[in-house]
Structures are given as C-alpha cells and as structure tokens.
UniProtKB/TrEMBL annotation:
Originating species: Streptomyces genisteinicus
Reactions it catalyzes: L-histidine = trans-urocanate + NH4(+)
Membrane-spanning residues: none
Post-translational modification: Contains an active site 4-methylidene-imidazol-5-one (MIO), which is formed autocatalytically by cyclization and dehydration of residues Cys-Ser-Gly.
Descriptive protein name: Histidine ammonia-lyase
Any one GO CC term of the record: cytoplasm
Main location: cytoplasm
Amino acid sequence: MHTVVVGTSGTTADDVVAVARQGARVEIAAEAVTALAAARAVVDALAAKPEPVYGVSTGFGALATRHISPELRGRLQRNIVRSHAAGMGPRVEREVVRALMFLRLKTLCSGRTGVRPEVAQTMADLLNAGITPVVHEYGSLGCSGDLAPLSHCALALMGEGDAEGPDGTVRPAGELLAAHGIQPVELREKEGLALLNGTDGMLGMLIMALADLERLYTSADITAALSLEALLGTARVLAPELHAIRPHPGQGASAANMLAVLEGSGLTGHFQEEEAPRVQDAYSVRCAPQVAGAGRDTMAHARLVADRELASAVDNPVVLPDGRVESNGNFHGAPVAYVLDFLAVAAADLGSIAERRTDRLLDKNRSHGLPPFLADDAGVDSGLMIAQYTQAALVSEMKRLAVPASADSIPSSAMQEDHVSMGWSAARKLRTAIGNLNRIVAVELYAATRAIELRRHLTPAPASRAAIEALRAAGVEGPGPDRFLAPDLDAADAFVRDGKLLAAVEQVTGPLA
C-alpha cells in the first residue's frame, strides 16, 4: 500500500487524494516530530507564566477574557472539543473526513500549533486503522476553522463520540480505539483548540473537486466532439491558429482535445452539403472550447489557491519560528470559499452548454437529418425525450448551486466572530454540483453515441468508434425500440465517473489535456 510521509513543509494534492480515497498509510517524518516537540516546549513555557495567552490559559472566542488556572486547563481543552462537536444532519462522506483529518495532521506536523508529538501520532494511527469519526453536514461557518467537523474528529481522538470502523460499522469511538490498540489522547494546554481551528474540511473538498473536475472537463471535451460529429458539424473552428489569436490556455487545450477526438472522422465537414447549407454551427457546438476553456482556467486559479493552502499552517494562535505565540486571522476561509463558488459557476455553465447540444441532437428541426428524439419509430417510440428532461433538471439545479455561499455571512460568538466565509457550505454544494455534472455529461454521451450510430452511411472517427465500443461493452445499449432507460443512464454515469470514457478515447488519441 502507498505510504504518505508528512513533514514540516506541507504536502501535495495527490497525497490528499491518496489518503482520502485510496486509503494510503500515513507516516510522520522525523523532522516533523522534532518540530512538534520544539513548538510544544514554547507552549509549556508560556503555560507556566502568569500572563494570559489565548488558547493556552484563557477561554475561547467571546470568552477569551477569562484567565484559566492551571488545574482547569485540561478540562478547558476537553470542553472545547465536546461543546464544539455540535454538528447536525446527515453524515459526511468517509473520503471527506479522511481528507479533513489528514490535512489537520499536516498542519500539526508543521510545528506551528504547539501540540505534543503523541497527539499527531494518534491522528495518524486513526487514519491508518481506517477509523473514521462520524461528522455531520452542518456545523461549520468556514471561519475559526471548520469547527464542528474538526471537533467531531478531535472527539474521536479522545475516545469519545461515534466513528466508523474499517468494516463500515459505526461504533463508539472508544471501542474502536481499544480494538486497534490506540490509546485515547489526554489533551493539554492549547491542544483542543489546535485540533479544530483550521480550514481543512473545505480544502480537502476543494482538492477532491479539482481531481473530479479535471476528469470531467476532458470528458466534456470528448462528448462535445461526439455531438459535433453527430450533427455533421465542422472541425475547422478547432484549428490551433484560431485559438492562438485568443490565447487563453484552457481554450486552446479544449480545442486540441476535440480536434484529436475528431481526427479521421467521416462525419465532419458535411454541414454545407445540405438542402439549406449552414455557414457555421450553433454556439453550443462552435463555442464549446471557449466555455470549457474558461472553466479550465478557473480550475488553474483554484489549484493555485489549493497549493498555497497546502503550504500553510492554519491555526490560532500560532507558534512562530522565533518562539512567539501570536493570534491571527489565518483561519478565515475566504480564499478557499471564493474558488469553491467560482468552480460551481463554471461547472454549471459547462453542464448548461452540454444540455443544449443534447437538445439539438433530439430536435429533428435542428439535428440535420436525425430522427426525432433519436427514436426508433417516432410516435410509437419516445426515444431520448425524457433523458433530456432529466438532464435539464440537473442543469437547473446546478444553476441554483452556483449561487455563491461566500457572499453570505452570519455573525456568531456574541459578535466576536462577526464575519465568516461559509466555505464549508460552498464545498458541500460543489460536491453536489460535480455529481450532477457527471450525469449531464453522461446523458450527452448517451445521446451523441446513439446519434453517430444512426448515421449509418458515414464513418465516425477512430476515437469515436472506440468510445462507442467501450460504452456498449459496459452494458449501455445503442439505438433501438424504447426500453427501460434509467439503467442505461446509470451505467453511462458510472462509465464517465470511473474514467472509462477517457481511457477508451486515449487509447486512440494518446493523452488528452
């Protein structure tokens, strides 16, 4: 099994995905253990002084004015975890919780939080044992960290609350720790606060969203090319010289992908051979690289933000290299929240243009010779009429999900925390949007491949044939009389989600961007 080593200098997006989705093991580097111990010595020294230090010898948030005596500080740290583990609603997905825990561990290992090495090691032990704390949908405002989600994880480190074992069964966390020989943590000064004061949940979801969207944007380039081919459109608009004069990198990449898929097609270029020749294709076909390309450039910006966050140590207060412990506002999730919302906008537009191409394929007045709704016997058969309804419903929801969460703020903690990012909410709705986008791309794939097969007198591109053959081999049927459609659509959804469309096409084209 792959092992990810956590040091003092951050980690990579690939590491996050490996731990969250693939169950990679986690090891703490020796340099991180040294940094943890050094920072802890600073905190211990401050704890011994009479002067109050936030998070070490004071209350939290609006209660920071109270000085806490030494005998109550362990209780203070336990209490912040227990009281902040106040999430409600459905359980959050296992991969999100694992990403959240791993990213918090990454920050602990930076040596900027002041926790003891054994606290970090216990978190690594939970990850390696496949113990996943139960975290709920609601409880984070995306400021002062993802408080409730991280608190539920910290609660499990203490042997309290509920967690899911490696077999998928939810049990009391204390039982699971005991079963795996893990000793619960007895929190000391600052450690409870350090475990829950980060933007790790929203960052983890951003990183996984980028991994999903990278696959989906390339898949959407493929389905756009298939639709262009099915509509007998022209590939001349994809010529590199046309995109070089508007040099957005994402646009050029999408156009190159489409051109590679269409190489050798016998369907393209017929758009001027009809009874009423087309001078140019509709926007949803002709402007596909411009729309998808803008989304690709949005992703590039989001990756830049994610990489900066991965290089960050988000906590309050933090232990600085010179030994000072300082309060700060780095826990505010605005940088992450903005790009999460931005990605939801771009994804909604990609879904929207894909649906317009599907609708064009089904309309006999705009499909250039295809049967109505791609039906076998139109009138007796309805073909893909309602598949487009489903696609349209998904697009409509994506437009609602594109409304930015980060434009909202609700004051909390008796107005001490009077502006928040709502980044967790932005991340949650983006995950929903990505699932919808996958389904939308799958419906376009289903329609476009059927339409190409209905052009029986013309030969599709080799890459198109490879996509069709792989889709049919996956159990998704081609043209014919009406049948129960939902299983086919579900299978097409899985085909796109599992990367099988991309794999089939790249066997012909080579790697796509």
